[in-house]
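Tutorial sheet, problem 5. The two components below are modelled jointly, 409 residues in total.
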Amino acid sequence: MTQQADTADTPEGATALMTRLAEAQDREAFALLFAHFAPRVKAYMLKLGTNETLADELAQETLLMVWRKAAKFDRAKASPSTWIFTIARNLRIDAFRKISRPELDPHDPALLPEEEEPQDDRVGRLQRARVIREAMTTLNEEQAEVVRLSFFEDMTHSAIAEHLDLPLGTVKSRLRLAFAKIRDAVGETLE
Amino acid sequence: MTIHHHISDETLLSYAAGDLDDAVSLLVASHLTLCPACRRSAAVAEDIGGSMLGELDPVRMSDDALAHVLALTERVERDPELPVPTASRNDYVFPAPLRQRLGGDLKDVKWHRIGYGIHQHVLQNEDGASQARLLRIAGGQGVLEHGHNGEEFTLVLSGGFSDGEQSFARGDVEWANDDVIHRPVADAGEACVCLAVTSGPLRFSNIIGRIVQPFLNI
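Model answer (structure tokens):
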């Protein structure tokens, strides 16, 4: 990956920029990541009902967190957009709750590891972002809707059921089917 | 150790989306610590979020936003690369999210006796949402038969219990809702310690349970 071709528009480009940021505190790389992700994080906050000022602030705070935590970004574990999504999600929750969101700590000594540690599948991880994007387009209208309501309307299963005037069981099974479709596409299965 | 009773896919999806209330999130994060299979699924669910974030139409940031954040980067400390592991897996009973909430591990829990060989510790959590509590049930002891007004998740942290035909060990989650009436019994021997999260008060089938319930905060 050449430096001059780095752009945050592709998972590969964004990962290269994250590496430059982590290793060299590269401000140009940060500016490119900011230009791509901050306006999308702001859109996410607005979708979830945050007002314009707070949405802008939370987007800034998310990107400041990207700067601060760059060294912790594990490119074998997640694509930059997934990682940034989780930061934005947690900051939004923490802005509205007294207690910060309980999070898995991947370095917790109590963590029960995989029986077989998957090898560094950086390429696999980046392909995965693409596979998931494609799999999302194969969801039918009903499945896409419940996924969208979960991620962008902050709705619990019962809130979705009420909103769509559906039995709770129907909402759950639509979510389950949508998730199964995407996970199958990725080739991940729960034993 | 293999986990047999998992968190449902639709709940993992809601966890990734950030829709679960505080107490249920605490239980899911604790289960993920002990369940590699659900960690893999949760990673896919978060990838869905990442992919959806990437597809959003960008909204123009305020004019000085980048300059403002760059100025802040001069002042904030960057997090160190990775924490150096100083403990081994057997040093803790509770997963990190629970240790953080409690401010300690199993040995630090201040138990309150509620009778019938059962102790509890009600955890601090957000108002108006589900309630998380730690339960310690003496070996061989049963919890009074009860139903639920809402959902109940029970994560085993130490020891085990059985409920009808099914048995639950460290890392397993039992889920019950309005339709389920059950009577979990701790395995003989060591006490069973669980993290239990309820979204509504329990409904005891038995008159004694109903009489003592108001005093027990369950």
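Marking note: Chain A has a mean pLDDT of 88. Full credit if you identified this.
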